[in-house]
Amino acid sequence: MMKRKPASRPRDKHIEVLVIDDEPGVRSVLTEALAADGYFVYLADGTNAKEVLTAKQYDLIITDLRMPVMDGLQTLALAKEKSPEAKLIVITGYPSEETLQLCRELGVARYLVKPFSIREFRQVVRNVLRGKSSIVQ
After folding, report:
1. Is 80 exceeded by the pLDDT of residue 15?
2. Is residue 136 part of a domain?
């Protein structure tokens, strides 16, 4: 588990975000964006997601759906168990009505389809944390 401290702007509340994706490049880009906005970021992939999810509670969990070992739906179920108050964002390059419905049932706040811009991603994160987001927009 890797933790990065925020680069700027202290927040009223220490917000801890877990990013779970099997692509190192995606994790890196999302981490940079989140850290620049002042969030404390933790990283995982499908192989260590279970360990990282059970280590502590998070305010926001962002996960890909298609990953080896532990896929996004398994990750979401464990996230709801271990961090029941956490907001959930799913990012996927393979959207489907079936996974969208499953995400709704698991309480996902936002289902974000790749590719997306960093600007859009940052706005989605802000809206989800403020409770101002529907699962699809």
Report:
1. yes
2. no
